[in-house]
């Protein structure tokens, strides 16, 4: 059991980026504390949380930086330089958050081409026949840029663990 582990084999820095309100803090809360709060406070300073993850028999300590909603690219340039992986998050019910995800991606590529980047379409629980979603747009961007794309729900705890384990795996694959 990984969570019972004291030490770790590798320390990884992860960064969550994306528009305000897409669910970044909720994903971190779900992943590190197993909780979802329907009315979280907006993030006002960088929030740092950590959790152990086991991949291939190795123990990783994933240190996660969750940025405030109004961050601009220059606000996070220091974090970008020291991060191993970035999860770019958008809200599957909001096209503008997807368009901004694409912008964030381009800026990340320019800043640090070594980062493992993953695209997350959050709030999949809100998808139904009556809601237009940007799932296809996410898939297309991911295919074009060879990114891993996962749809998550922090609310229903769907694919949250999977998304974080996947990005740790991508980073680990590159380390060895
Ligand atoms: P952040 O600004 O990106 O950190 O977003 P927050 O985590 O603060 O979430 C913004 C709002 O979206 C809050 O009201 C959350 O409860 C809600 N939210 C976050 N994740 C989900 C999800 O997976 N499904 C639904 N339905 N709501 C979510
Ligand atoms: Mg937040």
UniProtKB/TrEMBL annotation:
<protein>
    <recommendedName>
        <fullName>RING-type domain-containing protein</fullName>
    </recommendedName>
</protein>
